[in-house]
Amino acid sequence: MTRTRATDLNTGLDDFLAWAEKERGAPLPVRVADAVLTLLALRGADRRAGVPEPTPQLLRRVLHEDLPPLLCATPAELAAVPGVLTALADRVRAAGRLNAKRHMRLVAAIDDAVPEFRRAIADPRNLTWPAWYASLLRAAGVDSDDPAAVREWLAAHERAPRADRPVLPAPLHRSDVAARTFATRVQLTDALLAAFAHDVEGPSPTGPLLPSPPLDADRPEEALGEELERIAGALIDRWTAAGLSDALAGPYAALAPAPDALPHVALADRLLDEHLDYYGDSGTPLPPPPVLPAPEDIRGLLQGAPLPAALAARSDDGRELAERCGFPGPADDVWATGTPQELTELGADILAAVVERIAAAPGEDEESAREAHEDAGDAREARDAHEAAEDADYAEDYALDAAHLLYSLYERGGTADSVARKAAEQGSWQVDPSLEDAPVPVPDTAPADYVTPSPDELSALLGIPGLGEEDRAELDGPARSLSAVVDQLAETGCVFRAGDSYGLTALGNAVLRHVLAAGQVAAPDEETVAAWDAAEVITAVQNWPPRTAARTLAQWTAGHGGGSWSDLLNALDIAKRTDFPGIRTSTLFAYLDLAAVPAEALRSAVPNPTIGAYAHRLLLTRGEAAPSDAERVPPSARAVLILEELDARWIEDLRTYARVLTEEEEPDLAALPSAIPGAFDAAASTWPGGAASLVPALAEAHPPTSVRVLEQLGSGHPDSRVAALASRTAKAAKAKSAGAGGA
């Protein structure tokens, strides 16, 4: 087989195209045939038929994984993909490498794989920079096989006003395309390296797949790498547009940034890690910010912030940071004429670069503080140096956690937090859980220097009565260190601090939302949430701070008509039956109460077999229950409520055990009291049939959840009869759960 170009692979392309045209009477599209044969060969397809021989498995991998990000084809070329594959199957059969049965099976596999290929090729998440620009070239009528025409178009595109340039398809950001481009190039180069190794160790009888590399060079390993990169670029050009790889890697690199040219990509990864630590799923949505700036306001907000303005003005103090963010360079043009999305991305890059700088700085401060401690000549100097070293320790803790601070602010739903309270949480103080998400008032004026709140103010902030000056002094160092980090973040215009309160600005909401989206974290805006159905709303808000959740519920129902409260309650019922442990019913009813759910909607939910007892309890609490409502609550709904309350006691017991384990050297866990027996007895006192009837009712409500509650009753209830019944029922519930897959 002959090669016509130094970068051609030995795939039998020319012979195959000639054979197919002779057999079919019409030529096959060269671009598609080249890509299909090359990718099959790089996947390790046997080439003894003179062409790469497809198998159903190889076919699926090439069509669904390899081809979509690498090929930019016209609609006619894409429509020809099944024909190219069928012709390839026919060619392998003609070479005697497929019998009739295997040929028929392969053709059927082609038919099965094509619909998913069409979906994948249209999926914007598979878009790469070469494919994007190749599509724009073709749309503009440029000859994509003419390198000079390609470069001429790129030059004109770069000169065009940013607002006039085509935008990436939603929901893509430049970071998405950069990441996909990088991953695709690495995958292609790795496949070429594997093919080279196969050529060396056991080449096909038809000859090596790759051209001979320049192994006689002075540095053969470097020469091999360069040659493989050159081949990868040539292949991408053949499947997109001629000369595009070198152009986008060289003079037009600003049009196709790599991930390392976008500082906010690293911050996006960090925020994704934070989100997964909290929720375990990137698709679990964060609350929408209450305030997002209008697109036309982004420029003024960014250019009015101290640090971005200094970077754009070439301040000597921030030269390294400026270079990291693209000043001088592509950021200058964005600063002057960028679109709102580009300016938001620039703000994200600046914020991310500051987070990087904060994390890198404390180590130096700590080292210098410790050196001062060692060199101190008298007791006073030694004490001061020791305190400086402790402050450096605090600073490092918070510096490394700057990304967490940003995530936690966004996760609060736009409400301000307290520096002192955050420092206390970080220092493992026993902050009242009900206050952790409580918003903090923002004063109209406050001194620039941070001052730790008074003991009385700290007691109110932390929910810890009786704090004194010693407690305040203990918290002062961590709080001041945290405030210093907050103040550095505030220079970006994304964060504010007023006294002890701090939070995200409108610009910060927009920038953080952009970064979260780059990390594939669900970060909807209020418009998106308003378009959700009742099930999406009710499952999302349970993870949000109370006031944010209540505001969202009220806004959603206001926009969906009078029956929307009942829609929410019905959705809550379905969600609870579908995912019993995943739906925090008590929390959601508390949020519904905050949102002022009408009594009529609650009363209609009272007969519900899952949530009816919760609806009735809320009516009672608000003084809106009718005398007959209690009789309408199904026993199953009462059992659900009691089971969840007992399960909450089980979690309280677990926390108590964990605290005792950390506080005592030799704890006697067996002697620790459990809250479950007393709560069970209180519930059994009003249950028809008492404890003997309540135990099986709990198991019936949800067997998997009941197991740990019943096991605790079995080991800790003072009445041996109740304990024995609970133990037997727990065993049966465990067996039932195992049979049902633990659902």
Automatic annotation (TrEMBL):
Ranges for region Disordered: 361-390
Taxonomic superkingdom: Bacteria
Basic and acidic residues composition-biased segments: 369-389
Name of the protein this chain belongs to: Helicase XPB/Ssl2 N-terminal domain-containing protein
Organism from which the protein derives: Streptomyces maoxianensis
